[in-house]
Amino acid sequence: MFHKILIANRGEIALRIIRACKELGIRTVAVHSTADADALHAKVADESICIGRAPSAESYLNMKAIISAAEVTDAEAIHPGYGFLAENAEFAEICQNCGLTFIGPTAENIRLMGDKIAGRQSVTKAGVPILPGTKDNVATVDEAQKIASEIGFPVIIKATAGGGGKGMKVVHSPASLPNLFATARAEARASFGNADVYIEKYCEQPRHVEVQILGDKHGNVIHLGERDCSIQRRHQKLIEEAPCPVLTPALRKELCQCAVEAARSIGYSSAGTMEFLLDKNNNYYFMEMNTRVQVEHPVTEMITGVDIIKEQIRAAYGEPLRYQQKDIKIQGHAIECRINAEDPVKFTPSPGKVEGYHPPGVLGVRIDSAIYDQYTILPHYDSMVAKLIVHADTREEAIKRMARALDEFIIGGVKTTIEFHQRIMANKDFIEGNVDTSFIERLKL
Length: 445
Fold this sequence. Notes:
The chain is of the alpha+beta class. The chain has helices spanning 11-24, 40-44, 63-72, 89-97, 107-114, 116-124, 141-151, 177-192, 249-265, 297-304, 308-317, 395-408, 418-425, 428-432, 439-443; strands at residues 4-7, 27-33, 47-52, 77-79, 101-102, 155-159, 168-171, 197-201, 207-215, 221-233, 236-242, 271-278, 284-290, 333-340, 352-353, 357-358, 365-369, 376-377, 384-392, 410-411. An eight-stranded antiparallel beta sheet has the order 13-12-9-10-11-14-19-17. The chain has a five-stranded parallel beta sheet with strand order 3-2-1-4-5, sandwiched between helices. Strands 7-6-8 form a three-stranded antiparallel beta sheet, covered by helices on one side. Helix 4 (89-97) runs antiparallel to helix 5 and helix 12 (395-408) runs antiparallel to helix 13 (418-425). It is globular, with a radius of gyration of 21 Å.
């Protein structure tokens, strides 16, 4: 096994990886910006090293500084977590060229599935259903109008290198297409340095269902069941649960096997997620693949008992999967609420010093967070400060447990979205499972 791993990330995911490494007997190196000198991940790791100033471009996105930190600390591998460089094929290649193991899939897999058009074309060869759409990027408004008319409105414009809802616009009529097409391209260029977009049929009021995949370098691929990530605001996930409450056993088996075949067809060898849209008639369509560990991986860990980070590390080292598909048993129901340092109504950021911190506990409650009392939440990075995860025998019990845990969760000194999540847990439609990706906007929560 690896002797030492450098974690090229910050916050709760860096802390999560450090914990997994400690249990595997692996020494850890934390990197941090000047602003993150007092961050918990930097304190808990065996070693820490400053890699630049607060802006991400000068620190957590600074490939040269991260590689140098790995070299001077004699780290053998780099775990990128999620975000930052986690799905950067160039960084994966640089690690390889420098004799470092990138704890994730191959650069070829990252590049293939990072290009949404190429990814769609790849999975169709494995028999995975996709929504009608373009096979290549769309360069002009006239071309976009022609394609949209052929597909039929509404359509959705998506950045080929997209993610997180950036460069994504829903178009309901020909009149609104020119402006939205230009906006999508501008957002794509600003966010990803690539203005290319494609168009596909818009699936109205779908559920967002994703399948957790694990693969190794020996050709083994299994799934760990699915997650329902339909509670979103502006394409940003807020609440995730597992399993999906509306899937029948037969549909679950079909969807998960479809995801496994898609991953196997590209020789996938790490933790990853196949994302699908599920329409009102229970038809599912491939949307994209995330070639990294997901923010919401804990809900899957809670219902399967599988430590996804440990398995990802073992796979990167070259070990075969310790599980066969028959070993994976789904137990109970899990829900995750992403707690952000934001106004719970306006969703505007609320950085500042934490004045009082009390996380909930007791059986079936898990907190993934890197904040503490008197910690200063910085304005430079993502506003998520904690993930509150609960597990219970049934979905009904899980909702009640989450509501109770939210009531106990205290983060003083800053505004958080705890109140927002309390409203969701008390909402009749959510309790009954009547949700889709437009749930928040439709109910104006």
